[in-house]
Write a structure and sequence with these properties.
alpha+beta; Transferase(Phosphotransferase), domain 1; 4 domains
Amino acid sequence: MWNILFNREQNNDFQYNYITEYSRKIEFSTFTLHDALSKNKYTPVSVFRYEKNRELMSYDYAARHLQRLKTLRHPNILTFVDSYEDENYVLIVTERVIPLFEYLENEEDGRTRSEFIRWGLMNITKALDFCHREGKFYHNNVGHNAVFVNDAGEWKLGEFGFASESNSSRSGSRAEQALNLTIVDPRKSLKPWAADVAGLAVLIAEVYNRSTLTERPLQNSQMVPEGLREVLSLILESEETPSARELLTQGRQNGSFFQNDFIDRILFLEAFHTKTPLEKANFFKDFQKCIGQVPEHVAKFKIYPLLVMAYDYGCEGTHLLPTLLEFYKKRSQYGVNLAEFIVKLFKSSSRATRKMLLDHTEQYINKIPQGIINDEIFPLFAAGFRDGSAAIRKETIKSVQHYVTKLHKNRINRELLPLLAGCLVEETEGEIRRISVETIGNLAAHIDPNTRKNVLLAVLTKAMKDTDAATRGTAVKYLLQTQEFFTPEDMSRKILPALCGLVLDREQNVRSNVFFVMRELLGKLEDIEFPAEAGEEAPSPSQKTWTEWAIAALPTTFSSIFKEDAPQKDERNMIEKKNTVSAENNQTKDIEYKKRETDERQIQVNSVGEGVRNNSNVGTSVNKNCEDQSGRVADKMENEGKQEKEDDNQGQGGNFSRRARRGPKRLATRINHKERRPIE
C-alpha cells in the first residue's frame, strides 16, 4: 500500500478524503479500491474508482455496476453510500470493505478460520438467492474477485457490471470460465442460474487454494475440507444444477456444510425476537463459553449490534453483559460501543441488571474512556446510593473503590464524599454504615488535602459513636490506618479523647482495638521532640522531652482545676481553726482551775504544819500524828491529781477520736496542742 494525495485531483463537491490505495488491484474488474473518510463525520468508507481514459467497454461495466448497486439493499450485498462522476473518474462510495483474499491473508487463527469461511460462503449463497428470487437477475461474475469483507467479517457480493436478466455470458465475465471448469457432462441441462452456482463452486476452490482457479477437474481439489466437498458434489454430480435456495436448504441440515456452532449462534441472534425466554436463557448460557473464540472485529461489529438489538427486544441485561465481558476479558480497551451499551444497562429499571453491573465493575471500568465514566456513567451509578434495595446500596458502595481512580477530583470531593458521609446519618443498615466508613478510609489518599483532615475526623469520630459495634471497630481501625494525615495536636486533643470514650465499650473486640490504637498513637507522640526556640541551644538527649515537661506541668494543671473549690477550702480551714482555739481555751481553763485548787490545799497543809511547830508543848505523839495526817493529805491530793489527769486524758481522747474523723489537719492540730501541754 502506498499513500497518495488525492485532494488535488478531487472536486470540492466530493465529500470524502482518500487515505490509501491497496497494492493488489481487483482482478477481473475495472475498479481500484481505496480507503477514505467522510469530511463531515469522519466515517470510514471505501471508494471504488474508475478512470475514464480506459476503453468504452470498461465504462459501460462501471455504469451498469453503479446502476445495479444503487437499487439493491440486502445484508449480504455491498452497501451503497454515495457516488460522484466528473470528466476523469467514476467514484462509487460503499461501506468500508477489503478484497476477500486480503482479508484471508490477515486472518491468523487457522482453528476457527474454517467456521468463518463457511459462514462467508453461506452469505454469498444467500446473496445469489436474493438476486435470483427477488431481483429477477443473474450475477454472471461470481468468484473471489466479486467478494468483499466488511469490518464485521461479513462477506458481501459486489461487481454487478455483468448482471443481467438472463444467464447469457458477456465477454470478459467469469461465467463462461466457471461453466467450463465445473460442467463435466456437456449434455447436462443447464438452468438459468447454472453460471452463478458454478461460480460459487469455483469460489469455494479459490478460497482454500488462495489463488484464481484455472485448472480442472474441480472435484479433485485436495485443499477443500471434506464438509464442503458435499457442495461441490451436489453441484457437479446432480442431474440438474441445484439453485442457491436448494443449496441453503441442503446445507442447513444437521451436520451439513452450512451448519456449525458459530453459524447457528449468528442465525439465532438475527432471529432473536422470535425466540422464547427459555430459548434465550439457554442460548446465552452456552454462548458465554465460546464467545472468546470469536475474532475481535466480528464481535465488535457483528455480535455487539445483534446483542443491542436483542436488548431492545426485551432481553435481560443479566444475559447480555456476562457474554460481552467474557469476550473482552483479554482486550485492553472496549471502545465507545460497549461503553454506550453499559450506559444503556445502567438506565434500566431492573435491579438484577444493575446488581450485575456492580458485581462486574472491576472487569470493565478500567477499559472505558475516562470522559464517558465521568459524564455519563457516574451520574447513573450514583443513583444507587439512594436505591430502595439495601443490596443495591451495599454493592454501590463496594464498587466505589473501582471508580475513584477514574473520577475527576471535583467528582470525588463534591459528589462522592457527601454521598458516602450521608450513609452514616441516613442508613439504617449497620453493615452498610460499616462499609461506608471503610470506603472513606480507603479513599483518604484521593481526598483534597485542604479538607482531608477535617473530613476524616468528622466521619471517623461520628462512626465511633455508632450503635453498630462493627462500625465502631472499623472507625477505630481506620484512625490508625490514616494517622499520617493527622498532626500531633489532632492526635492529643481530638483523637485520643475520642478513643477514651470507647475504653469501656461493651464489645471486647472494640476495646482491644481501642487500647491497641491508643498505645500506637501514644508511642508516636512520645517520640516527638520539639525544635529549640530562637536563641536557645538544641536540647541534648539528656534534656527533658516534651512529654516529661507535660508530666511536670500536671500539678500546676490540677491546681488550676481545683481553684474553683477555693471558697469551700477556706470555710473548712476557718472551722478547723475555730475548733482548735476552743480546745486551747478549754485546756487553759482546766489548768488554771487545777492550779488554784492545788494552791489552796498546799496552804491548808502549810497552816497545819505551822500550827504544830508553833505549839512547843505538844508531845511527840501529837507531832507524829500531825506528820502522818499531813502525809495522808499530801498522798490524797497527789492521787486526786493523778485521777483528774487520767480523766482529763480520757475526755480529751474521746474528743480527739471524734474530731480526728473530721480531717487530717484537725488531727495534727490536736496532737500539737497535746504535746505543748505542761507536765504537772
